[in-house]
Amino acid sequence: MPPMEPRDADVRPFTAPVRRHLAGAALAGAGALVLASAGPAGAEDRQTDGGSALPVLHPDEDWSRMLARSPRVQLVPGAVYTLAAPVHLPDGARIQGNGAVLTTADTTSGALVVDGARDVTISDVRCLGEGAGSADPGRIDVPFARDHVAVRIDRSSNVRVLDCDLIGWRGAGIVLTGSTEDDYFSYGNHIAGCRFARCYLGLSAADRAEFSQLERCFFTACRLAVWQSAGNWTLSGCIMVGCHGSYYSIAASSPYGEADSDNWNHGTLVGCTMNHANSGAKETWSAHLEMPIGG
């Protein structure tokens, strides 16, 4: 009988629990398979199970060099990666976080940038803007810092940010921008299963970064959860609670928009919960509430 095809690169060379998706007996079985195929010490950095696992990017390695060799990498579970400058992800990049922490050296720059790329996936990364070593990272009532962004996506298509934490960003957790020079009907970006907390702005979509999805995400203690001025987004199954503002879709662009106009007020919002915008929650913004207008 011919050997079975290896499964997707989700097979990890680490025996730490896989966050969010596997539990109980299923996890125990997966752990046994990984242990059986791990091989000699050191081999786990490159391959297991017939070579299907992703190369491991260690905290002390150069991101640009590693991504030039292999755009698909995984991070060390629980490790902390501190970036001195933003990392640009190429076409086809995959960052499989395994629960690792990604942070910046200060609040003057961002973390990950997808600029004019396609088919990029970022999953299971804890993006912590401030206080990466504390039990409750991030702060509220802080001034807006435009460049302090966890994931910035510009004129890119089929970018997926899945099951990530975006906490403590003084600019935004995720920023998406587009251009009328592109076929923006085909952007098709997808944000799902993420947690946004203590961000000045959770997610911003502007400058015709259209026809994309935000689903099953949780927002709390943000100055504003979502500003969607790009048009034609579908939001579903999201919870926005304890944020000073929940959802803006108005004839004005977010601080990240640069175009004179946008596709105002187009989109779908279904099955979302928006509660306690200004009171009731233990953490509510009371300072630095001014929101710059883009465009």
From TrEMBL:
PROSITE patterns recorded: TAT (PS51318)
InterPro entries given in the database record: Adeno_E1B_55kDa (IPR002612), PbH1 (IPR006626), Pectin_lyas_fold (IPR012334), Pectin_lyase_fold/virulence (IPR011050), TAT_signal (IPR006311)
Pfam families in alphabetical order: Adeno_E1B_55K
Protein name: Right handed beta helix domain-containing protein
Organism: Brachybacterium endophyticum
